[in-house]
Write a structure and sequence with these properties.
By secondary structure, this protein is an alpha+beta fold. The chain is 30% helix and 23% strand.
């Protein structure tokens, strides 16, 4: 990688150096993660956060020892020295210094993190601006980065084009009304900046459909916002959605291609992260997550994802309700609650489960319907262990008359003429899905949703 300072190596590059009888001096920069001070030497663990490893720096000599005595966890340093084979256990090489420069000091009495002390994730959330300095949270961010890249690589490899959908929108994609309205800070009386009500997007799906109906295979990855007044472990007010839309051409009414794409994407992301970030994943699975998380993730790869219809899932829940009551009674025509999702996952052996073919009443207006009086919807939810619903998808209603009638019955016809145009001019069967990215990371990593994103926004909190 490029180095702005022109001479210093990254910690990863320094650790990859092969020792020789007369190694040349190199320079590294980073933060002191721990300092062990002895009479004749000081041992510093220096990391730059770009990888999971640290470089042990051995400081000797009177002048350097005097300076090293003042170094504490959190200091930023530039170190020059020779990388040699390490006689100690736990590292192959270490650096013997001939020069240390303190770039930024750190008062250990005020610094919230202590060397070689376990800090809970709940404690780290108090310091959103500093928690990336810790091993656990920097590992989470590297894992998140790898998962993002795995998703891009998989979809690009399948011929999908990445497009950017707007953050500002005039439509409520989900129809739930849980929106953040956007207005200028200095607003003129009776003025509407965009000549209509504008909101932060809850989903880029409707705009993504316009691209799919011209480019066949598209996806977007970006922020979404929902003003849900929930404090559950599954909810954020700002989160990221991986949304995919594709034409299905002659496969009208067939959810199969959508299910196959969802499963293939999930499997690829899991395998890629496990292969590329083995050390980071091991740290999270052993130090942060519950023991069963790793087992559950591995189990999800063993067999194809299970598939249940809504009716089959409802039958399982009704039977269970007769033995041990749920808080919410499972009923036909109602969406499943979190407690229902947890039971379905336990019943199926804690593996990913597709639930398909929902009553149309519980799905949004754009979902393709079928059956008597269009009472059923070609929709799917993917439930994943530890989390519940992670992916929601559907075929989109491509029939102009059906969609027009539905919008009219919902008194939404006026604002969606542009959406109807996709059906007026060269309509085509199409469908897609949206993955709650932080929820997927919850499944993979076994951590709270507020620890899957750098700066969590939720009811009552918008720090940093």
């Amino acid at each position: 990688p490029g180095r702005p300072n022109g001479s210093c190596l990254s910690i990863k590059e320094a650790l990859g150096r092969v020792s020789s009888p007369s190694p040349k001096p190199i320079c590294v920069q980073g933060w002191v993660m721990s300092a062990r001070k002895q009479k004749e030497a000081v041992f510093l663990d220096v990391g730059d956060g770009a990888c999971d490893s640290r470089l042990q720096v051995v400081v000797c000599g009177a002048d350097q020892l005097a300076l090293a005595e003042s170094l504490n966890i959190g200091c930023s340093v530039r170190v020059r020295g020779r990388v040699l084979e390490s006689p100690g256990a736990g590292q192959a090489v270490e650096m013997h210094t001939d020069h240390i420069e303190v770039l930024g000091s750190c008062d250990p009495t005020d610094y919230p993190f202590k060397a070689r002390k376990h800090h809970s994730m709940e404690y780290l959330r108090q310091f959103p601006h500093l928690r990336a300095r810790t091993n656990a949270f920097s590992a989470l961010m590297r894992l998140r980065s790898s998962a993002v890249m795995a998703a891009h690589c998989y979809l690009q490899g399948k011929g999908y084009t990445n497009v950017q959908t707007p953050v500002l929108t005039s439509s409520d994609c989900e129809g739930a009304g849980e929106l953040f309205m956007v207005e200028p800070f200095s607003k003129r009386e009776n003025e509407k900046f965009f000549n209509c009500n504008s909101y932060l997007t809850v989903s880029g799906q409707l705009q993504l459909e316009t691209m799919a109906c011209a480019m066949s295979y598209v996806y977007t990855f970006g922020p979404a916002f929902r003003a849900e007044r929930n404090h559950t472990r599954k909810h954020l007010s700002e989160f990221y959605m991986l949304e995919v839309e594709r034409v299905t051409w002659g496969q009208t009414g067939d959810l199969g291609p959508i299910l196959e794409l969802i499963e293939g994407l999930c499997r690829h992301m899991v395998v890629s992260v496990m292969e590329e970030r083995e050390a980071d994943l091991h740290l999270i699975h052993t130090r942060v997550a519950k023991p069963e998380v790793k087992t559950s993730v591995l189990k999800s790869l063993e067999k194809p994802f299970l598939r249940l219809t809504y009716q089959e899932a409802l039958d399982i829940l009704i039977q269970a309700h007769q033995k041990k009551s749920f808080v919410y009674t499972p009923k036909w025509g109602e969406d499943f609650k979190e407690e229902h999702e947890r039971h379905l996952l336990r019943h199926c052996g804690q593996v990913p489960v597709f639930v398909t073919d929902y009553p149309a009443l519980v799905k949004p207006f754009y979902t393709r319907t079928w059956g008597n009086d269009h009472g059923m919807a070609s929709a799917v939810d993917l439930l994943m262990p530890q989390v519940g619903e992670v992916v929601g998808g559907a075929l989109r209603e491509e029939r102009l008359d059906v969609l027009q009638h539905r919008l009219e019955s919902l008194n939404m016809l006026e604002g969606y003429q542009w959406y109807l145009d996709l059906r007026r001019y060269g309509t085509v069967p199409h469908g897609g899905f949206g993955m709650g990215f932080e929820r997927f990371l919850q499944f993979l990593l076994g951590v709270e949703i507020r620890d899957t994103i750098p700066f969590p926004r939720y009811l009552g909190s918008c720090k940093t």
